[in-house]
# Entry
Amino acid sequence: MKALFLIGMLLPASLWAQDATTFRKAIESGKVERLDRWMKRTIHDQRKGHLVNNGSSTYIAHQATYDTIVAFVRQQPGVIDAGWDRCVAKAAIWPGHSVVGIKCQMGGRTVERCWRVQEGRLGTIRIGSWRPRIRKPQEELRYTGARECTGFVAEQRKQCEAME
# Structure
């Protein structure tokens, strides 16, 4: 009984990892919509970020989340390169935005796809010009869209090399 309880507690923890089989199937299908669906699911699974303690306070950072997603994707067959816009100077406003890009072979052609991710969720909704607060703001990732972006990954590499 104890072993069954232990397996029941540890099994969900092992299912949180990125799904390489689903990613491979999305690449092999040749449909960018399947790749978009995989990225949306991955961002949703890792939306909470990482808690950072600097001694006097704690805050949530998402850079490690983006690094893990990009490192995982780079190891997959069919992926030429991947990156995110970590070296780009961004406005210090909340909620922030980041872009994750992948260059891969799909259906015999090279596809470069980018996904826009919002770093935080507002607690308001918009009803005309009225914006009532319905919940407290949340510091988590939110998938906002995908698009074709030729040259994005190479451009990000150049920007990071220029900063070093």
